[in-house]
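Limitations
The structure tokens in this dataset are predictions for the assembled complex, not deposited experimental models. Users should treat interface geometry with appropriate caution, especially where small molecules or nucleic acid strands are included. An illustrative entry is reproduced here so readers can see what is and is not provided.
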Amino acid sequence: MPDPQPVPINAKFGDDFVTQLVVVLDTDTMREVAAKVAHHVVGKRLPARDADMVVRYQGHDLSPDVTVAEAGIVPLQNVYVDWVEKGVTP
Amino acid sequence: MARMKREEWYNIARDVDWTRSYVDEEAVFPEWMSGSGKVPHEAWKSWDEPYKCAYTDYVATQREKEGSVYAVKSALQRSNVFESLDEGWKSTAKAHFGAISLIEYLAVLAEQRMARFGLSPAWRNMAVFGTLDEIRHTQMDLYLAHEFIGRDPQFDWALKAYHTNEWGIIAARALFDGMMLGPDAVDIAIQLPFTLETGFTNLQFVALAANALDSGDISFANMISSTQTDEARHAQQGGPTLEILMQHDPKRAQWTIDKMFWLSARLFSILTGPGMDYYTPLEHRKQSYKEFMEEWIVAEFLRLIEDYGLKKPWYWDEFIAGLDTWHHSLHLGVWFWRPTVWWKPQAGVSKAERAWLQEKYPHWEEQWGPIWDTLIENVNAGNMQGTLPETLPWLCNLCHLPIGTAASPNNPKHPVRSYPLTHNGYTYHFCSKPCRQIWWEDKDTMHQKTVIERLLTGEIQPPDVGGILAWMGLTPEVMGDDAYNYKWAEEYRKPAAAAGS
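Predicted assembly:
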């Protein structure tokens, strides 16, 4: 099995004021991608919330279990992460 | 021997030209340097500067101005004025010295290009004065900043900044290279004297002079006021050039001004905006950045371009909307990524300052309040790591400023987002539609790699914050930190926490 490959993305979280460079792996699930993007924002510039997160790519909300490779996310693309109320399925 | 009056000889002297017989016109004024384009060479004979100046007058006036600047500096050098200056104001001065000093030198090269390749002898004559002006400005900036290096090493960046890859400097270099170094003489005249010096240097020199005086930095105020008197004269190379260009190629004139106005507005919103609305002590603020822009740039510049028969730039509404948001976003970014700058950003968000911001910008709290509140909580909890970056903001492929800073949170009309463009299989990102459009049209002359691209291609090693800071030339004694050591945050401590602290 090939090593996981880094995928640099241009990511924005919720109501943050900039988009940022975040490097994810092509094997990361959307749950992991959301956590990696949130790491740079939540608790730093935006307060933590008791809510789940959703990853949005090319206008579609992605399932938390799908991987970067499966979602077709390639380097340099925009990825948006936002809060979603607990229990709401993207 | 009686001397002739200036008006009797001036028009002949400044119009001295000759018909070349050994070489053709193109050899002397090659298109790629002169840039006549669709304008026939004959048309340039009507070039007429509104402000007449002979060399003897020039030297006498400049000598007087120089004497005044250096006399004030010399007198204040022996005082303890520096120690009494507000740290926020010092940051404004440091940002100015680093971002402007060597741009004055770049302007020497631009003026020299017009002095050699300008298409009328009167224009070339004016550009010689412009060249001498810009040499003077470079010297003044460097000399004044040099005095303070012994007391504060951040002033060393007056000379050093443009020899580094600091991100703000890359943004400034990208703009000013495209404005002054790359273009031909005609485009330089439209971009530098007309767009930048007629419009935006008012912002940097008039507004800052007032704030400097109020903050007690008389020497700085004196220096930039002296600079502005030169700018006001040599900026007049723009008008006559534009007048002729409008007769023969108005489309080129409109595009060149639109492009450079947008990019200048983007850069000055970081260069001047934070200084006016955050770094200048509250009691010394006369006007907000937006008010100053509306008075000096919006009204004045619009009237000026309409007088020449130009239309409002296509992005005008977006630019106006940006007066409420761009510089707040950039200020927040500079403060959060403060180790990446060579000054000490003053947060400027004490309760009194926030009340002032909210009064001047009615959406300020809604857009910026939640982010500052989170940062303040971290400061007061001693969680400084929570106020510092672990990655970089994505940077615009044209203006090199962070994506999102041409917008604001909670702003449905101009939301925080990227405007991407895939070209030849590569995705570029832009902060706004105008940046994307300008890049698309002029990518052959305006494109430079962003810090993000340099990081991703392995130019920066190790590829982490430490590696990035070292690559930018920021050493520990110079890299920025909060101007007041976070004391302003104390008033936000919750009573229980305050009692326990």
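Some entries come with short summary sentences. For this one: The CA atoms of residues 405 and 453 of chain B lie 19 Å apart.
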